[in-house]
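Long-time lurker. I teach an intro course on protein structure, and each term I like to show students one example going from raw sequence to a predicted 3D structure in token notation. This year I'd like something fresh instead of my usual example. Would anyone be willing to generate the tokens for the chain below so I can use it in lecture? Attribution to the forum is fine with me.
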Amino acid sequence: MAETICAVAVDAATYAIDKLYSYRVPDELREQVQIGSRVLVPFGFGNKRAEAVVIAFRKDAGQYQLKPVVEVLDDTPILTGEQLKLAAWMRERLYCTFFDCVRVMLPAGLWFKRNETYTLSPEADLASLAAREGDAGAVLRLFDRPGQTLAAADIRARMGGKSMTRALDALAGEGVLAYRSNTTQKSNDKTEKILSLDLEAGEAAARIGARSPARLDVVSVLADGGWMSQKELCYMTGVSDAAVRDMVKKGILRARQEERLRTPDFSEVAPAPPPVLSRAQQQAYDGLASLLDADGARAALLFGVTGSGKTQVYLKLIARALEQGKSAVMLVPEIGLTPQFLRQFAAQFGGEVAVMHSALSAGERYDSFKKIKTGRARVVIGTRSAVFAPVQNLGVLIIDEEQDGAYRSEQTPRYHARDVAKYRAAQQGALLVLGSATPSVETYYGAQQGKYPVFTLNERFMGAKLPEVIVADMRGLAREGHEGVIGPQLEAELTDTLEKGKQAILFLNRRGNSRVIGCALCGWVPECPSCSTTMTYHSASGRAMCHYCGASVKITGKCPVCGGEGLFTETPGTQKVEQELHEKFPAARVLRMDADTMTTKGAHEKLLARFGGGGADILLGTQMVTKGLDFENVTLVGVLDADQSLYAQDYRARERTFSLITQVVGRAGRRFDTGRAVIQTYSPAHPVILAAARQDYEKFYETEIETRSALACPPKADLTVLTAAGEVERQVLTALLSLKARLQSLMEGQFADVKAPVLGPAAAQVVRVMGRYRYHLTMRAENNARWRALIAGVMREFMLDGKNRGITLFADANPDL
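-- Reply from a regular --
Happy to contribute to a lecture. Here you go:
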């Protein structure tokens, strides 16, 4: 019989050496090794066990003697052919390894943890081995006797955290140490013991007799032949666990394990009738439904003002997809939005709904993944990673608030959920709906170019009116003696709102007590020792914290340099505003919603439920309060510092500011009371502020697209940014200068057809983070296959060059700069 050879993507392969590696499949594993399955293979010097995914089978090993597959980790393939094609598509565009792309598709609970051990040979001469020099000798001196086994993690810990991989691999290669690897899955199926009678009820009662009434109650409860969990049975009858085990042992009861999914329970959500659409909503739905019914991949933009009822259109469209036997995926940008969406969707679709986001435990994500993959859930709601949900027969994929930056991953692979959604829709012949009141400039530009139709909702649902907007000029208030963040106009509006028994939402895009705290005498300001940035003061903990690496220092009230007690604070954060609200409105109940208060599981849902139920008068928060929230009693919205993001060094700064202001203003007056909004700004005549106040997206877009054209920024041109990071600043700069020269040389020769200017090296906005300096090169060129081949090639060269050891390099397409 001919050898079976499989081609795999290996977890341990870096980007510089990432390719498909061939392995021989032993005869005993032939039936288990399948495309899409994960396996363990020996890899590299020392043949350490590495996780891999089977991508294909090959016929010929060529002249090489292949290593064998050691173990198959999955009973059935965990990845479908469609997912493997998606991984290949991402790898080619995102400058990452194949395994990076596979990893992001699977929930954390499906990954394996490896317990590695090293055993000293029983024949080893410990005295002579311990005399060896270097890292090898240091490792061998950790062993007390021949045959002793130490865990790899313990060896690293005892060596002060130093990586001893090379020394361990060399000793394993010599046969001095024996390497063992044990692999277990991080999360497993949750099961529950259920019980039923194994005898006729009368016979079971006769065996028990009258001396045990609790056991007789068990027989009575199970007399109808049904099954019940042991937990419920003990609760209902008062029988002990030991008594149940005894009844099973005597053959009175029979037991089996039944799977229990760790997924949200929607049994308490009352079913709701299908939503009744307004005329405008019906027109939008009819257009989208015709696209859903058509063959092939389609895309559309649902462009509706805040409060126009886009969610009702989504619900009807998903219901239509389910009627056709298809599935739906709904993406939302923030974890905080999922509770509200979940209740609406569960009322319509019940147990067919699954949720996927990072706040779930590993076990919950694992069970949601299983529920989706097996077809038990056909409606998926989640944040960015839900775009990879393995639904069967995808019919519609909806991205709500598609302009939101949360859909872009800042970790490898650096994907945008919108791009992945476009590929999935094209691959599976599904409908992609991009929904927003403030579409991204790229999306609206695509619609203007005729790439997809636009369905517009110009009016709010149920005739509600857009809020009246006040642009409050904050200039000069300090000279007039006004202190605090809340200006006089907003204070007056808050007073009026609270007197009427209504609620308010205040938005400030900064958490913490103050952006800066320092000494008024000597000028000391707490700076992060590992990052080139100042720390933010948090009054709740009395510490100044770095929001990049998490380092913190205690603020005692005295300057650590001169001992002065005159500490000042500037640019207040949410904690400081909360204190100000309590001072100005002592009777008001205030809730704060930011990253500091949302740390516990379920905190989003509890806080929003409390506010929605009238448990607070004012909701103060960061970006979490700007999108998707719908509270009928909210009649006032305040934007406390509209300029905060307007002047950032980023070509998307104006777009981001317009979107944030428009979205948060749209939280007011979403029912029968006309809402009001106060935008506090030091730039009251700025076109972006005025356009946001009027909710005039078209005017904003008209100005913004002209600016993007002048700057040659997306969507008018593609940007590619190469970022290098290392502990030695000079080394990072030298490496990038060499990389720049190499790029320019290639574009003069082999890649002369893709010439582009190379700008930089330039420092990142925060040049030093966690002790590593960050600089980048920027290029404007069409992001096509030829260009990507150039970038991928120079990146691999860079990583293989020994002079660049200790420097990390990554590429990003059209990032925020």
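Some talking points for your students: The mean pLDDT is 86. The first helix runs from residue 81 to 94.
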